[in-house]
Design brief:
Spore Coat Polysaccharide Biosynthesis Protein SpsA, Chain A, 2 domains, 9-stranded mixed beta sheet, 12 helices, 28% helix, globular, disordered N terminus
Length: 398
């Protein structure tokens, strides 16, 4: 719903869609209180009407609805939607995303998140920069520092911009405008509850419950060759509080949060960025580098540094991976620089990451798994690893 208003960055008058802040709540009163506190203390442009919507799914905790109704919002209209019947997370998120059609754009925040003071300013700039780019399917406020498939550290290569791209939709703070959201919803109307597995889709994602809306958003990005725009420094962090999809609180998904005020972000596009990743967190820029070196097309090269893709089902003849395979090694790289893809960009020779010709059999190279663990988890001593193992085993038994 476009209307005449103020620029969300400068406050100057212009034709603009509103950016509504939409909070998705269920039964976690303490989580919601913590999120609302961070939202209330954040930075907002003056003289700008910023709608706040708190959507509360039907549950057994009346205190959640009472908190939503009593919360004071000073930056515009506040609206509480208390659902009379239980929706479940998937339907609830989809209903909240549909509010794009009322406001123009939405920031979706689940109740176990916490926002940076600059979360709204970042989102406004990102939407203004990438809102019309047909290859951008959404804006993430969260910066991934963990490859959720490999359970290993992840860092996007620094190409000088304030963002990177990934074919992995965000659920820990995300924004959509009408174009982005309607594209996904139209695709979902034809593909909901269908089998979305495939070699281009991480197995653990396609295996998520049908209650997951996120796995469909990820499949949509893959099908349409689109990406989410991610920040270099996170504007949200995740407490992963105990709830519908988490059996205990832990800090696995906590990331450094931007604490100060920043404006004037420098955003890349998917076409000029060196930091564009597929759904497996693999850098697609490496395909271009290797294809040019081999004098082959990019479809002939598969990148699998983390080793989470299905061996034997790759698209082309050449495979870059950390796995030890009985195939001919054309070239091998070390695991010295961080992130790992920098070793290929800067041509760091070694024996940790291998470029194979899959059409030629050969002796499998030796790999040192201990060196890989020390590369990923450099601050952990042996006795600490044992403590972690005991803790994990004990937690599962409980």
């Amino acid at each position: 719903m476009a209307e005449t208003g103020n620029d969300p960055l400068t406050g100057e008058s212009m034709d603009n869609n509103k950016i509504a802040v939409v909070i998705i709540a269920y039964e976690r009163e303490a989580s919601l209180r913590r999120l609302l506190d961070s939202v209330s203390k954040a930075l907002y442009p003056e003289d700008t009407d910023i709608p706040l919507v708190i959507s509360v799914d039907k549950g057994n905790n009346d205190a959640v609805r009472a908190l939503a109704e009593s919360f004071e919002w000073k930056h515009g209209e506040k609206r509480v939607i208390a659902h009379d019947t239980r929706l479940g997370l998937k339907a609830h998120v989809l209903k909240c995303g549909d509010l794009c059609r009322d406001y123009g754009s939405v920031i979706l925040l689940e109740d176990d998140l916490f926002v940076s003071p600059g979360y709204y300013l970042y989102t406004a700039e990102a939407l203004r920069s990438a809102g019309d780019d047909e290859r951008v399917g959404g804006i993430s406020l969260y910066d991934h520092l963990l490859n959720v498939h490999a359970r290993e550290p992840f860092y996007a290569i620094d190409d000088g911009y304030d963002n990177y791209y990934m074919q992995f939709a965000s659920s820990w703070g995300q924004a959509y405008n009408v174009r982005m959201w309607n594209g996904f919803r139209n695709w979902l109307s034809e593909n909901d509850n269908k089998d979305i597995s495939g070699t281009d889709m991480p197995k653990n994602v396609s295996g998520w419950s049908d209650k997951s809306w996120l796995k469909y958003n990820i499949r949509y990005l893959i099908d349409k060759d689109m990406f989410f725009l991610y920040p270099r420094v996170s504007l949200t962090t995740n407490f992963m509080d105990e709830g519908e999809h988490s059996d205990r609180t832990n800090t696995d998904l906590q990331v450094p949060l931007m604490c100060g005020k920043k404006t004037g972000y420098r955003f890349s596009s998917p076409d000029n960025s060196m930091a564009v990743y597929d759904a497996f967190f693999e850098n697609l820029h490496l395909k271009k580098i290797l294809a040019e070196a081999l004098d082959k097309g990019e479809k002939e090269v598969t990148v699998d540094i983390y080793g989470t893709k299905e061996t034997g089902k790759t698209e082309g003849r050449y495979l870059l991976t950390s796995k030890s395979l009985a195939k001919k090694v054309i070239k091998s790289y070390g695991r010295y620089l961080r992130p790992a893809d920098a070793n290929i960009i800067f041509d760091m020779r070694g024996n940790d990451i291998f470029l194979y010709d899959l059409h030629v059999q050969a002796k499998a190279p030796a790999v040192n798994e201990a060196d890989r663990l020390l590369y990923d988890y450099r601050a952990i001593r042996a006795e600490e690893m044992l403590k972690i193992l005991k803790y994990r085993l004990f937690s599962r038994k409980k």
